[in-house]
Amino acid sequence: MNMASADLVRLEDVWVHYDSTTVLEDINLRIMHDDFVGIIGPNGGGKTTLLKVILGLVKPSRGKVTVLGGVPEENRRFIGYVPQSSQFDRDFPISVQEVVLMGRSGHVGMLKRFSPEDKQLAVQALETVGMLDFKDRQIGKLSGGQQQRVLIARALVGEPRLLLLDEPTASVDMPMQTEFYELLRQLKRKMAIVFVSHDIGAVSVYVDKTACLNRCLFYHGTKEISAEDLEAAYQCPVDLIAHGVPHRVLKEH
What is the SS3 assignment for 35-101? Predict the structure, then answer.
């Protein structure tokens, strides 16, 4: 693994097909060590597939994927991943702390016991996301927003260098979303973050770079979204509106 590489992740001319359907077309993307990237686009546009390509869970039909200088399968333990949705049986007897410790499995192995260091890392991760007081609670009894924080803690406990989040605000109430983005702003001091959403409003003031994805990737390495990119991604005319405080004012179009 080339730890000195300037890129955490690099995708070069990546195509993905499911049977005869093209899901990703000629994707080129570089994720740097200090990036905070928001990827927006419609449902079915390939956003989840893109994350799975980075994780090595989906093999490209062609093209090259590099993670920390190597192949994704070798280095995915350095990536924290929060999936789009996780359904918990409300009666299943597993605690918040036990869920978070699962994030250490890639480091200790599935059949090995967790060490005191692993348990301390779980405590630190829960403290980071503001859920330490809930560590002994049953995960199924928590609200959707609380469960999402626990899933982020599970991703953090592996001490990742890159955090991938798939629709991270889907189960978070609107009043809690600002607080959620503030948490991400704090985390980006320690790792790169990429999150995907179908909701244009999820692109907050905290994001450093924005991309649009609908099979093809429209990405310029900046936070500005052009009307042309949005129309190409959503395949319909789009009006850009800035509101709220703080807000982002986009160029005239």
Answer: CEEEEECCCCCCHHHHHHHHHCCCCCCEEEEEECCECHHHHHHHEEEECCCCCCCCCCCCEHHHHHH
Of 206, 189, 208, 191, nearest in space to 155 by CA: 191
Tell me which residue of 122, 116, 89 sits closest to 103, measured CA to CA.
122
Please choose, from the candidates 199, 201, 204, the residue with its C-alpha nearest in 3D space to the C-alpha of residue 223: 204
Query: pLDDT for 161-184, tens place per residue?
Result: 999 999 887 766 676 777 788 888
Check: pTM over 0.90? Answer yes or no.
no
pLDDT digits (tens, 9 = 90+) for 194-222: 999 877 766 667 788 989 999 999 987 77
Domains of the chain: residue spans and CATH:
7-85+160-234 (3.40.50.300)
- Measure the CA–CA gap between 217 and 221, rounded to whole angstroms: 12
- Nearest Cα to 81, choosing from 112, 55, 114? 55
Q: Which residue spans within 116-215 are E strands per DSSP?
A: 162-166, 192-197, 209-214
For 39, the token pair is 């990827």
Written as one letter, the residue type at 108 is: V
Question: How far is residue 41's CA from residue 236's CA, in Å, rounded to a whole number?
Answer: 12
pLDDT digits (tens, 9 = 90+) for 78-131: 999 998 766 677 778 899 999 999 998 766 655 567 888 999 999 999 999 999
